[in-house]
Amino acid sequence: MHAMINDAASTCYTEVLEQNGTALLVLSPAAGEATAADAGQLRELVQRARRRYGGVLLRGFDALGVEGFDRFAAAFGQPLLAYEFGSTPRSRVEKNVYSSTEYPASQWIDQHNEQSYTRTWPASIFFYCDVAARQGGATPVADSRLVYRRLEPALRELFSRKQVMYVRNYGNGLDVPWQSVFGTEARDEVERYCRAHDIAFEWLDDGDVLRTRQICQSEWRHPATGEAVWFNQAHLFHVSGLPPDTREALLEAVDEESLPRNAYFGDGSPISSAMLDEIRAVYRDTMLAFDWRAADLMVLDNVMMSHGRAPFDGKRRVLVAMTA
Q1: Which CATH number covers residue 311?
Q2: At 170, which helix (H) or strand (E)?
Q3: In this predicted structure, what is the pLDDT of residue 315?
Q4: Which residue range is the domain that position 183 belongs to?
Q5: 141: nearest Cα among 298, 5, 305, 282
């Protein structure tokens, strides 16, 4: 179903993509060539859609390129954020525009709200498809409010009471090095960052390896709507989330405490794989996926909506920007 929205600044067709209860509004230019580079013409439409649905997809507009994408994201009135304390490899493309996660194309990346494994996170996340994959490569989304409601209340209560502890090991050659995660070669700067963010840390192997622990929320309430959302990455960090061959190889190389990353309850007790499988199943049953087209631009409320990445073939370039 298409509808047309008219205001003083723009005329757009709208369409709602909906799958498994998650919905995304699509905005497209009504006729002829149009550019999204001037976000002022689209800002109010995008903001209204994001408040209602959690996200909006701009499709059919002229290609922005890296600089245009940077300007679009910055025009929403909040400063663009650097990718600090990251959990996956990615590269700065230009200014505060980054590549999307640089995991191998064959790997699926589960649903997650950006940096929900910390106590600070971006309020908004922007995706721009510069090059669409030949096949696959979707960025599925899932409504975090719906995920929360579909989880068993007893499981939600247990997580809420105990919270989630994330344990990470950097510098053992198995994951992102601490120099990349913290953006510095200086250990004292790492320690200052950890103290400021209430992250416990210890240096191992004569200072070559860094181990951190941080206890974070399992759920959150949206600051504008007050709605409860499921908001953590226990299912991503936990060892059970790794492919079986990878998990076995890692556990043969190191003990569980030295894994690149793992998740526990906040008191240090283990989280059962069965609980995390239930969470993963709810995410799968709530996902909305669509094929990227070149020049597509997606704006998500990072609290309301999670995202992931499907495997793909061929070249794929999806850029990311984040705002407070």
Answers
A1: 3.60.130.10
A2: strand 164-170
A3: 94
A4: 149-283
A5: 305
